[in-house]
Design goal:
The complex is a heterodimer of chains A (about 50) and B (about 190). With about 50 residues, chain A is of the alpha+beta class. Helices cover about 35% and strands about 25% of the residues of chain A. In chain A, strand 1 and strand 2 form a beta hairpin. The chains are: A alpha+beta (about 50), B mainly alpha (about 190).
Amino acid sequence: MRKLYTKKLSKKDQFKDLNPKKETVEFLLNYSKALRVVETRGIKFGTILN
Amino acid sequence: MNNVEITDAVLVREYMQGNEIALSKLINRHQHRIYSFIFSKVFDRDVAEDIFQDTFIKVINTLKRGKYNEEGKFLPWVMRIAHNLVIDHFRRNKRMPKFDNSGDFNIFSVLSDSELNIETQIIKDQIENDVKELIKELPEDQLEVLTMRIYKDMSFKEISERTGVSINTALGRMRYALINLRKIIEKHNLVLTN
């Protein structure tokens, strides 16, 4: 039987370098900076400033 | 040199007061854990990316509206949001199944097995946990009958013997338990479907 030489990654290794993309994090930070919450007559509205 | 790490609670407070850098620190601190958690459920980089983004959009909206009560539980709170969004994702996909055939006809796109897969299992577990929490709001006598009937699989005869009431009373308590449970679900505006 042919041998398989692929190394199976452990669960720990599979998730070791998992991080969201830089763009996603940047988008979130920009979204946060652009979001303003305005309160009118007790109701809060979110507005995106560009 | 100051090596003392600022706590999540302090960063959250600073962010709610308008310090945007605090959010950046919170994301950097927890991104790996949250993203890994999402990926471990969906096993798709793009989907994980979307859910991660939606999670933090919810976090940002809640914090900016001042609706968050800091109890030293920032990470569990964010993980809970991510968990709910993962469930939403699987529910949506179940309603609108994706056909990812690449040209050739694939029989597995139109066939499905009736056994629970990992996604439906997560949803089922979530629903069962929610129900377990909800029944705690029932009156003691109804909770007792419902627990014996549903969780211990006892017959109404056995329940009546154990609780010392007539079978009709046990049946009535079960009926009211279900009616009240529906009311509680409506009150909390919950959707408990798989």
